[in-house]
Amino acid sequence: MKSLINFSLIAIFFSSFLNSQVLNIEELKTAPRGLARDYYIYRYINEKKPSKKEIAQLKPYVYRYAGKIKSKIEDKIGAQKQVTLDCRGINANNLLEANATCQNAIVTIKYLQTLSIEKRKELADKFKNVSPSLANFIIGFDMPDPVLYYINTNDTASYLKYYNASRDKEKFLNEHNLTSKFVAKISSNRQFKALINDIVINRKYNEFRHNLIRISSSDLIDSDVAFLLGLNAILFHRDEDALRFFSSAAKNATAASKRDNANFWVYLITKDKKLLKTIAKSSDINIYSLYAREFSGGGKIKIIVPNPKIDTLLNYDYTDPLAWQRVKNSISKMDSAELLKYGARFFTKSTIGEYSYIMEKAHNYKLHFYPTPFMEDIGSDDTKRKALILALARQESRFVPSAVSTSYALGMMQFMPFLANHIGKKELKIEGFDQDDMFKPSVAYKFANRHLDYLEKYLSNPVFIAYAYNGGIGFTKRMLQKGDLFNKNSAYKKYEPFLSMELVPYAESRNYAKKVLSNYIIYLAILNSSTKISQFFENLMIPGESEKFR
Question: Which GO MF terms does the UniProt record name (predicted)?
């Protein structure tokens, strides 16, 4: 791998924010809007036990009112009153004058059942020019098979109304074969995409899935749905049909990584080595482009490993989440030229994560930065362990020490507060430990080593370790012991382990592990320990070598 990588090495007042303090109400109100402030509002409510009045004062300052902070606030002061739609006084006689929201809310299957057939025909006629979609819904209601009518008229909205109202979803899907044009239209619908993802990944509703194979791929525009239908065809051993869908997915993919993924499946089916050369030239660095370079002798990978000489940025506390939040809020409004100028100030050893984050954004993510920050604190002399920690950190936080996620995972290694407190107080018994200590790189690396020591008792392949780091070791254990994935006796042996990697049930972990593995290969090379990515794919299928759960 060393010969395949061209490293573009760019030589281009630490304040004590963290003293286990919880901000007061006034500090929270003046803090920058974003996830960092949400985290501290959550801490304040959780630890200071404020009054209902104080919580109510803070509620308008929450940036993302969802998840645990929503639950915490509503547990204390009651659920937020939902704004109800006021459609009082509207009936069949004045429905035409109502707004579109009320019209759609009122004209349901149950409502139409209360009207006479004459009244429904009259209503449909009135809506023909005002709301053709609603008129079609009413017309379809009186057809011998309303759902078939909606499919034939490409009325996806009405189809979904009937689907959502059905008690037996599988029976509903089996009774109505979808046309190619209908699937092409509905494939961009989020609910339909979620349905297809669920039934393919979890291999549900066999009859309906089998019927999907006959869908024409030429009409499909949505790359994600086409890819899922390709996997579905593989699961039914219909390789030629899978080829159609994967080719469509590659053609319509807007992201290079998704195009590489689809093209790789075309290669797996056809064994056309020209495709490997195409994938090897990708602008994206992913497991497929790395694999393609290994077997096609493709071009060198262009990456940037920043190497600043200045230690730290004056008047910027890199361990302060609110300081980073201010930066994020500022750069969200900048164009590329402004980002380049502004980001240059972060070219220091302590802010190389922030620098890389801003520079990638400035270059529209076409340049790939692989920083190696705080190596003096990484806590291991083992090259593989160092590469793994760097691979995880790049994916978790982009090496921003003060990163806070939507679930309030903290720091470079994104530890959840409950786990950080357990390790810090119960396992390592660190005196005076506070969860905000996770914003210190030395602590983040220390905890990562501790957690990886635990995971590596059971897992050795970086892909499985990544699944466990992201989704939990319990999730990984259950998945492997179920026996249908990463099985050397699989009926789809010629497509393994790539098929199993696509069928990991938790989508976030599925994609996360792919990115961590590509990061791992790059960091091994940076640390002068180049390794072929193919060996990790082969190892996944061997119980006892890659993990100890089977």
Answer: peptidoglycan lytic transglycosylase activity
Angle of helix 132-141 versus helix 156-165 axis, rounded to 10:
50
| Cβ atoms within 10 Å, residue 387 | 23
The band of 1, judged by pLDDT with boundaries at 50, 70 and 90, is very low
Q: Which of 263, 185, 264 is nearest to 225 (CA)?
A: 185
For the stretch 240-272, pLDDT in tens is 999 999 999 999 999 999 999 999 999 999 999
- Whole-number Å distance between alpha carbons of 73 and 57: 11
198-203: Cβ within 8 A, 24+ apart = 200/228, 200/229, 200/231, 200/232, 200/235, 201/228, 201/231, 201/502, 201/503, 201/504, 201/505, 201/507, 202/505, 203/235, 203/503
Class of domain 375-539: mainly alpha
| Residue with the two structure tokens 């924010």 | 17
Task: Write down the domain spans for the chain.
Answer: 375-539
Q: Helix or strand or coil: residue 416?
A: coil
DSSP designation for 422:
I
How much helix, strand and coil, in percent to the nearest 5, is found in the chain?
60, 5, 35
- Residue 19 pLDDT more than 50? no
Please count the other Cβ atoms lying within 10 Å of the Cβ belonging to residue 379: 17
pLDDT for 274 beyond 90: yes
What is the CB-side half-sphere exposure of residue 213 using CA atoms within 13 A?
18
Q: Phi first, then psi: what are they for 302, rounded to 5°? A: -95, 115
User: For residues 233 and 245, what is the distance between their CA atoms, to the nearest angstrom?
Assistant: 8
Cα gap 96→244, rounded to integer Å? 46
Token pair 């075309």 in the structure block, residue: 266
